Amino acid sequence: MSKPILRAPLDNVPGATQAHRSDLPVGERRPANEEMARVLRTKPFRVALEPSSGTIAYWKHEPVHDIVKPMVDHVIMTYPTGVQRLERRTGRSVAIGTARPGVVTLIPAGSTSRWDIHRPMHVLQLYLPQATLSRVADEAYVAAPGDLLERTVYSDPVTSRLLMSAVDVLEGHATLEALFRQQLMDLLATRLLAAHAGSSITVRPALGGLSPNVLRRAIERLRSDNDADVSLGALASEAGLSRYHFCRAFKESTGLSPHAWLRQRRLEQAMEMLRDTDASVVAVAEVLGYGSQTAFAAAFKRFTGETPTNWRRSMR
């Protein structure tokens, strides 16, 4: 079963409990990564940091029997593999459920609860600052967000897939990964506002794409060799739009997100070099900014269905 058993008076939102808020001032709450390291008694297996928006950490941990103390950020988690029973005690309420792929758990900033997890577990966590949530709400022209709801192994395949994509799409290319994380944080914040905020919020879809001149400038920036120029903030600023509206307008105009467009562009460059030059696969990977030949080969095969070497051989 993925829906938790709730054993306490609850609010009128299905699958949610009222978070037990601490009176601890924000300045005295612990960063989420430090508190999770204390509770899980280990270090994350992988970390993807996006300083302006949030952090994603992948943990493999042993059984847990501890109280999670108030944290400065919201914590959203999903479970990549396996099936695991867990218990969460928040104030007078108890939630007992099964962690599995496709469900999410939310710990709102400033809340505290007791956790009992009886076996080793894999978990992927997002640490989302309230500032990111408020910025996305403002850019999407929705009312200021209320508190996030406390969720315990709540069925939400959309949020789970978005969070899991942080692991699936890591490509060994610093620029692509940074741009992807920037987009992902905004997408996750938008999803949380729509599905897990304390008040009903409707995020209005973007209407229309970029003007021809703005689109041309954005593409010129993405084509440039200056990686510092292709952050989502820089692209949106030059277009005179918020990050939220730029991403949606760019996709409306091109059919691809900025990250997907840049990834396709880099791999098309790789195909040209493999077909038209004698540069080694290692050299092509290095010129295009991949951290290793292995990372480049994996990205190339996902795009073409063939390894770089086999693709080059078929073109000659």
From TrEMBL:
Residues 1-31 are annotated as: Disordered. The keyword Transcription applies. The keyword Transcription regulation applies. PANTHER family: HTH-TYPE TRANSCRIPTIONAL ACTIVATOR RHAS-RELATED, TRANSCRIPTIONAL REGULATORY PROTEIN. This is AraC family transcriptional regulator. Residues 20-31 have a biased composition (Basic and acidic residues). PROSITE patterns: HTH_ARAC_FAMILY_1, HTH_ARAC_FAMILY_2. Residues 216-314 form the HTH araC/xylS-type domain. Keywords: DNA-binding, Transcription, Transcription regulation. Coiled coil: none annotated.
